[in-house]
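Subject: for your reference before the review

Hello V.,

The reviewers asked for a structural picture of the protein, and I figured it would be easier to keep everything in one thread rather than splitting it across files. Below is the amino acid sequence we used in the manuscript, unchanged from the supplementary table.
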Amino acid sequence: MRTFYLFLFCLSITSVSSQDIHYSQFYNSHTFINPALFSIQPKDHTLQLQRRSQWYTVTTPFSTTSFTYGGKNIYKGFSAAITSLNDITGDSRFSNSAVLISISNKVSIKKGIILYGVQPSFYQQSINYDNLFFLQDEPLKTQSLSFLDLSLGLSYQNFIDLENSFLLGFSAYHINKPNQSFSQNNTFLLPLKFIYYTSLTRKINSKNILTPAVFYSSQKEVREFIIGCHLNHTINNEIKITTSVFNRYNDALIFAIGLINENIKFEASYDVNTSSLRNASNSVGAFEFSISYGWNKNKKNNKEEQIICPKYL
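And here is what came back from the structure prediction:
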């Protein structure tokens, strides 16, 4: 029976080989959710490391690592970020290496802000055929390829009052549909990916902020739907604790806990597999962590900076 589930797992890997990398802590990864969000990051400057590892009980582990610098209002209201990505999957050691550049700005309207952003990216992919077996000869022309990718993001943040707000967003990735084929005889265009999300930041009392959130993405036949909630609890003037519970529909339960002080945020999460593959994986999903360091250029006193921005994005 375990062999049967392992077979199903292999089929699933084949069917989603074109799917983008994804983080369970989607709220901590502006680059892969919406490039416009760098315009409302909590600090003027942020450095962030994020890493995910999964399927280590079933096959060669899949690992994703990204490092991001984000700067808010760095030139005439424009914000910018640069992300380096390294993603390695399976026995083929299929590798995605990329540099992603995000440029964004915002426009204030009444009690809200409209955010817009663009993200050109430069990818290099490689594959190792040594551990792969083919039933027939495959006309594989290369072990690596490079391409340019383009994505766009649009978001709206509304301030209910000084302590409560909601966020609504849409983004489209791979607008130019770059070719990803390693074969001489075939062309494989990277499918468009669409992301929709919404969240509400609600201050419950002087120590607790509750943030329910909904995330949905679609890329060809692949769908991802996540719903859950964060709770930020203030310990004292310097330390906060964040806890989160999310459900990725028909796939996994996601539990996260983090620690926040004035400049540093660390968060770790774990996926408990709830899909049909749990018999092969022993319900083991993925471990993920993110750590960020942020700082301001100088003390802010204007009304915009006094507003509590969502801590999850």
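For the response letter, the relevant points are probably these. The helical segments are 2-15, 30-33, 278-281, 303-306. The CA atoms of residues 164 and 202 lie 5 Å apart.

Happy to draft the paragraph if you're swamped.

O.
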